[in-house]
């Protein structure tokens, strides 16, 4: 019996091999595309490099200990431990910083300046120099904040430059914070500010601070986190979150938590804000 000139079995094998090759190439392309998208997303959304190792975390409420005067928090599984601290301004009056240190505070975020609600003038806090020097001399780590009334990015950058000039001779190793929030006690120059513009302002301020070699941070409360700021556009900066409930939660996480504005500690007459800063455990 004569044999066919072109056997069918090898032809089927060739077609099968080509299909497998095309599938393999398609798989390589999909994996490569996924990796590229992940790297691009990670580069945009990962938190900026910082000497403190801060990152925005989700707090495990089970690990939160609500002691007095300071809360404590430690997550050995994620290598996180919280450092207790305060934030102050002229409203706290005369402060005995050594007593504050002995009460258990490890850091202080000090108001350095603010922009006038109506005039728009940038003004240093009356007690800034005394507070930052006193806190540093007592052995606390110090950071600063500026209360903003910026209408646009140019004003936010002006605020950053003003703040940088104020702190250049002080040992500021902790966050330099942008604080813009609603003032409900009366009319202000920022009434009607859009969430989009507020986000651009915060970004402009932080970019300026980071370029100068400091660690920028953005202060947000629940209202601004959900109704004003586009948090996804700001999520590569550490967030200082004000939430006075027992179970603070923010979709993108936070690096510092202000858990009360009615704290009581030695060295300060009257109420003071208390905070936890989430640091890598050594």
From TrEMBL:
Keywords: Hydrolase. GO terms for molecular function: hydrolase activity. InterPro entries: GH (IPR017853), Glyco_hydro_25 (IPR002053). CDD domains: GH25_LytC-like (cd06414). It comes from the Bacteria. Pfam families: Glyco_hydro_25. Signal peptide: none annotated. Coiled coil: none annotated. Belongs to the glycosyl hydrolase 25 family. This is Glycoside hydrolase family 25 protein.
């Amino acid at each position: 019996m004569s044999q066919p000139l072109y056997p069918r079995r090898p032809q089927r094998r060739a077609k099968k091999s080509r299909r497998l090759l095309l599938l393999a190439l398609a798989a390589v392309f999909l994996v490569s595309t996924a990796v590229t998208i992940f790297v691009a997303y990670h580069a945009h959304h990962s938190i900026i490099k910082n000497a403190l190792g801060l990152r925005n975390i989700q707090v495990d409420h089970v690990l939160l200990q609500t002691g007095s005067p300071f809360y404590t928090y430690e997550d050995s599984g994620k290598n996180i431990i919280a450092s207790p601290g305060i934030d102050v301004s002229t409203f706290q009056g005369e402060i005995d910083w050594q007593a504050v240190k002995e009460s258990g505070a490890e850091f202080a975020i000090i108001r350095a300046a603010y922009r006038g609600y109506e005039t728009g003038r940038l003004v240093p806090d009356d007690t800034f120099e005394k507070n930052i020097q006193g806190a540093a001399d007592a052995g606390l780590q110090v950071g600063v904040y500026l209360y903003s009334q910026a209408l646009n990015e140019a004003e936010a950058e002006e605020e950053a430059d003003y703040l940088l000039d104020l702190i250049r001779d002080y040992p500021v190793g902790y966050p330099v914070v942008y604080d813009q929030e609603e003032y409900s006690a009366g009319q202000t120059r920022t009434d009607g500010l859009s969430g989009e513009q507020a986000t651009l302002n915060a970004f402009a301020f932080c970019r300026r601070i980071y370029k100068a070699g400091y660690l920028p941070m953005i202060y947000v409360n629940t209202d601004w986190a959900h109704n004003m700021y586009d948090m996804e556009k700001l999520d590569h900066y550490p967030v200082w979150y004000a939430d006075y409930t027992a179970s603070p939660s923010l979709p993108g996480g936070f690096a510092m938590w202000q858990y009360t504005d009615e704290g009581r500690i030695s060295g300060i007459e009257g109420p003071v804000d208390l905070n936890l800063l989430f640091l890598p455990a050594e």
